[in-house]
Specification:
The chain is an alpha+beta fold and 627 residues long. The chain folds into three domains: 4-213, Aldehyde ferredoxin oxidoreductase, N-terminal domain (Aldehyde Ferredoxin Oxidoreductase,  A, domain 1); 236-432, Aldehyde Ferredoxin Oxidoreductase Protein, subunit A, domain 2 (Orthogonal Bundle), CATH 1.10.569; 450-626, Aldehyde Ferredoxin Oxidoreductase Protein, subunit A, domain 3 (Orthogonal Bundle). The chain is 38% helix and 12% strand. The protein contains 26 helices and 17 strands. It has a seven-stranded mixed beta sheet. It has a six-stranded mixed beta sheet with strand order 3-2-7-4-5-6, with helices on both faces.
Length: 627
């Protein structure tokens, strides 16, 4: 196998100007040096990933075939002192058939950047399981045959024993190895780049892991950036910072189960009616007492995570240092399946991390299985005697293990609800809560209408993290205050989604940005690059990324406008709106969608960005390909 080596001194700025190309078929590892313009136009993360995917993956490529690219990209600020912790995985999605990305915290993005690399792009397929070892400027492929079959956390522990405790490991568990379409890429003992089926793409390439080592501590750390950091930390919204540090996102779970935010009972229930015991999953009183210490992603100023003591309950044997389940996990297994035992929820989260499952998709798949069992579509004979009932922690956990091991009825649901409905037939699609193949997250758009448009029309559907109505950046109008007012949301949503592309491609955490003064974003970017960006240019970068992602989706045959939305989600049928805070609410989906598409200058029938819009963003070759 070819070894790549990079010589010379690394530039002390927010990016290294170097990426790795890995041909898994030939074993060749080479260094690529992009022009500086690429970073200014796309920042990093899935911004640069969008450019690479468009340029390098042939139209119509098989998502699980060797032509697909698996890209791992830290954000522009990742590895710097200025609020960068996150990294993204980019590929053609085997789950949705179009654009795919997954966002992740943990330590891998920072360590990869500090080792001198702004991204890794994998192509081809290895003959046998391999892992990529990166030690500063050197990178080589090594045999991973002895590691194949291990869980993600187990495998990370083994690789740290082999290469040292300082090694950062991004890897897949058994779900990725068996090409589960709801599998992700894990790092830091349980932080997952979970969505879009990125773990299946990694598994399809026989790539078990990436191991990265470096002695470097921080990139672009100058006296000026440290002074800026300290000043900006003083500006943090302290109550918000303290809340997240103390509770993480579990602090909102119990309340959200009752106020209409969290879907209940597979979107067919109402919290105040079907899950009155929601207080049992309160983060502060029920989950946090089982935690031992706070956890933060790489140099995070908020540290909103936590790690557990070892379980004392033999039914739910999660180990010491298990990551606290956060809001989406608590919703997907708690409110969706009516599970209220904190130990069971922590254990379910641990199993998802070990197998490498997206917690949202796994929990939603089990909710569908329970409804199918309740409706007689699957029977006790199909489940080998397992009784799938609401509130049954033992049944939910047994089902999760069957999915992770692809055994029996678990194999039917291991690729998510869309595939399960195709396999089962008999009206089971009624219970498949997805849009475009992606299971829906734990925020009801009937309470926040922009989530409908995001879930349906974003190139990667079913994603709550593509919208955040930041009021401080000042470049787009606010949303109407009445959540039942569906008019005049398009311009707001366009700006809010483009802002999130800046946040994600910048490597910044959405929760940190909730507390920080985001009007400082130009200062942060300029401080570590020497650029002179202003807010207008930064928002244009977000718009460029938005248009390139959508162009890729359309090029691959996707049409988000044609994606069906479950009637329970829109309120067209009343299973989830018969009582409670959302009683009688029905979204005006046509107004929400067309208002957003017109604001973006995307075709209201096909979602294709206009030729004029693409050309104005410096994408004439993309305009030519689409038009």
């Amino acid at each position: 196998m070819t070894t790549a080596a990079s010589s010379g001194t690394l530039a002390e700025k927010g990016y290294n100007g170097k990426m790795l190309n890995v041909n898994l078929t030939t074993g060749e590892v080479t260094v690529e040096r992009p022009d500086d313009a690429l970073y200014r136009q796309y920042l990093g993360g899935y911004g640069i990933g969008a450019r690479m995917l468009w340029d390098r993956v042939p139209k119509g490529a098989d998502a699980l075939g060797p032509e697909n690219m698996l890209g791992m990209f830290p954000g522009l600020l990742t590895g710097t002192p200025l609020f960068g912790q996150r990294w993204q995985v980019v590929c053609k999605s085997p789950l949705t058939g179009g654009w795919g990305d997954a966002n992740c915290g943990g330590d891998f993005g920072g360590v990869l950047k500090l080792a001198g690399w702004d991204g890794i792009m994998f192509f081809g397929k290895a003959e046998r399981p391999v892992y990529l070892l990166i030690e500063e400027g050197n990178a080589e492929l090594r045999d991973a045959s002895d590691l194949w079959g291990t869980g993600a956390i187990e495998n990370e522990t083994a690789l740290k024993a082999r290469h040292g405790k300082k090694a950062s490991v991004a890897n897949i568990g058994q779900a990725g190895e068996t090409l589960s379409l709801i599998s992700g890429v894990c790092n830091d003992h349980g932080r997952l780049a979970a969505r879009s089926g990125v773990g299946a793409v990694m598994g399809s390439k026989n790539l078990k892991a990436v191991v990265c080592l470096t002695d470097r501590k921080v990139i672009a750390q100058t006296p000026e950036t440290i002074k800026m950091l300290r000043s900006n930390l003083d500006e943090f919204v302290k109550p918000l910072k303290d809340f997240f540090h103390t509770f993480g996102t579990t602090g909102i779970t119990a309340r959200s189960a009752l106020n209409g935010d969290s879907p209940v009972k597979n979107w067919g229930g109402v919290g105040v009616v079907d899950f009155p015991e929601a207080a049992k999953i309160d983060g502060g009183t029920q989950i946090n007492p089982k935690m031992e210490k706070s956890y933060g992603c790489w140099r995070c100023p908020m540290a909103c995570g936590a790690e557990s003591v070892e379980s004392t309950n033999p039914e739910y044997p999660y180990p010491h240092h298990t990551h606290r389940p956060e809001y989406e996990a608590m919703g997907a297994f708690g409110t969706m399946n009516l599970m209220s035992n904190p130990d069971a929820l922590i254990y379910a989260n641990h199993l998802c991390n070990e197998y490498g499952f997206d917690v949202i998709s796994a929990g939603v798949a089990i909710s569908m299985a329970i409804e199918c069992y309740e409706a007689g579509i699957i029977t006790k004979e199909d489940t080998d005697g397992l009784e799938l009932n609401w509130r049954s922690e033992s049944a939910v956990l047994a089902m999760l293990k069957l999915m992770g091991e692809r055994r029996g009825i678990g194999d039917t649901f291991a690729d998510g609800v869309k595939v399960a409905a195709e396999r089962l037939g008999r009206g089971s699609d009624k219970y498949a809560m997805h849009i475009g193949g992606q299971e829906l997250p734990m925020h009801d758009p009937k309470l926040q209408p922009e989530f409908h448009t995001t879930y349906k029309l974003d190139p990667t559907p079913g994603r709550h993290t593509q919208y955040e109505g930041n009021r401080r950046i000042g470049k787009f109008p606010p949303a109407p205050k009445d959540f039942k007012d569906y008019a005049n949301r398009g311009e707001h949503h366009k700006g809010a989604s483009e802002y999130m592309h800046v946040v994600n491609s910048g490597g910044m955490c959405q929760f940190v940005m909730s507390a920080a003064n985001t009007a400082n974003i130009p200062n942060w970017f300029n401080a570590v690059t020497g650029w002179d960006m202003d807010l207008d240019e930064i928002m244009q970068v977000g718009e460029r990324i938005a248009n390139l992602r959508m162009a890729y989706e359309v090029r691959e045959g996707g049409n988000p406008r044609q994606r069906p939305v479950p009637t329970r989600v829109s309120g067209e049928t009343t299973e989830g709106t018969s009582a409670g805070p959302l009683a009688g609410v029905r979204l005006d989906t046509e107004l929400l969608e067309t208002d957003f598409l017109k604001a973006c200058d995307w075709d209201v029938a096909t979602c294709a960005p206009s030729a004029a819009k693409l050309q104005s963003l410096g994408l004439p070759e993309v305009a030519a390909a689409l038009h």
